[in-house]
Design a protein that fits this description.
Layout: H1 2-20, E1 24-28, E2 32-33, H2 37-45, E3 50-61, E4 64-68, E5 72-73, E6 82-89, H3 99-120, E7 127-131, H4 139-153, E8 156-161, H5 163-167, H6 169-172, E9 179-183, H7 202-208, E10 219-224, E11 228-232, E12 238-242, E13 254-258, E14 261-264, E15 268-270, E16 273-275, E17 280-284, H8 288-301, E18 307-310, H9 314-317
Helix pairs in contact: 3-4
Organism: Kaistella flava
Protein name: Lipoprotein
């Protein structure tokens, strides 16, 4: 009997350890590729062999498809990780797009990815990831693009998956990709008048994902580690300031309204923006408890997954343990 309980304890400990040690890495989303020492250390410690690096965005400019915010690089961006190119494409591009335009777009996306990989000498992966918030009105065109990109690039094509695309999968459709990356953040708009954390509200997330175990594709998970401040002016209009934490609200010119919100007492430049007296700033950031709760919930729904944290930035990674 003692042997049985000893063996049972070992199995339970092993199981818990496996659940808590999912392979992980990061998204890199800055236009100029560089790594500060803390970022390089965090990336070296990451247990996945990949880093998901945004290469460029695609927009329509004067009626033509254009790559914008194409990456540049300096010598500090050195890593043994395999670089997975990520391309963000605005959903409205796929409205009223012709088959010839889809083929043209896929060819040019594939070509520019190859060009940047060769230019920077990246250790390339077998994967290309596309980030697009497609809808029921654009899914046929978007899915045709994904198929064409796969044929032209000879790569595994993956894509991001937003919460509403899981909940409404019959309407949104299932993309023709090898894997999806579930974005477990942006649970609401930060510009709404609400007290909920718009980056990650756990009850909202669970509502969207109650049937995620039925989704028919392999899935990895993207989790947020970023933060921002929501500035509200005298007439209730909002704007975002990136990378503000609750610690940053400690200022003699701020009146504390709560642990995460202050009122500005004096006109001035704060966080690179000129803000007036009477404006308020409310910080939204992510705790370890929130991340653990999401993982615990998904462990019951999805048997195997890796985690990609958004994003690799010293302003965020210093606040978390990986």
């Amino acid at each position: 009997m003692k042997k049985f309980f000893f063996l049972f304890s070992i199995l339970m400990m092993t199981s818990c350890k496996q659940e808590s040690s999912k392979p992980y890495t990061f998204y890199y989303w800055r236009t100029h590729l560089s790594l500060k020492p803390a970022e390089k250390t965090a990336l070296q410690k990451a247990t996945s062999p990949y880093i998901y690096t945004r290469f460029f965005d695609i927009e329509k400019v004067d009626g033509k498809f254009q790559p914008v915010a194409v990456i540049t690089k300096d010598d500090t961006f050195e890593t043994d990780k395999q670089i997975v190119p990520v391309v963000y494409i605005k959903n409205d591009i796929f409205y009223d797009i012709t088959l010839d335009e889809i083929n043209f777009l896929a060819e040019n996306v594939s070509s520019l990815i190859r060009k940047k990989q060769k230019e920077f000498g990246f250790k390339t992966s077998k994967e290309i990831q596309i980030d697009c918030d497609w809808t029921a009105g654009t899914n046929k065109q978007y899915f045709a693009f994904l198929n064409q990109l796969k044929e032209l690039s000879k790569k595994e094509i993956t894509c991001t998956l937003r919460l509403h695309q899981v909940k409404n999968s019959k309407l949104s459709g299932i993309p023709p990709v090898d894997k999806v990356y579930l974005m477990c953040y942006s649970t609401s708009s930060p510009l709404e008048n609400t007290d909920r954390n718009s980056i990650l509200d756990i009850p909202t997330l669970k509502n969207y994902l109650k049937n995620v175990d039925l989704y028919p594709l392999d899935m990895d998970i993207a989790l947020p580690i970023y933060s921002w401040g929501i500035v509200t002016n005298h007439v209730g209009k909002h704007k975002l300031i990136n990378a503000i934490s609750a610690e940053d609200l400690k200022n003699v010119n701020f009146k504390k309204l709560s642990e995460t919100e202050v009122e500005i007492l004096k006109d001035g430049f704060y966080f690179g923006n000129f803000l007036n007296k009477g404006f308020t700033i409310r910080v939204e950031e992510i705790s370890e408890q929130q991340l653990d709760e999401v993982k615990k919930y998904l462990n019951k729904k999805i048997p195997n997954y890796s985690v990609v944290y958004y994003q690799l930035d010293s302003r965020f990674i210093d606040q978390h343990k990986f």
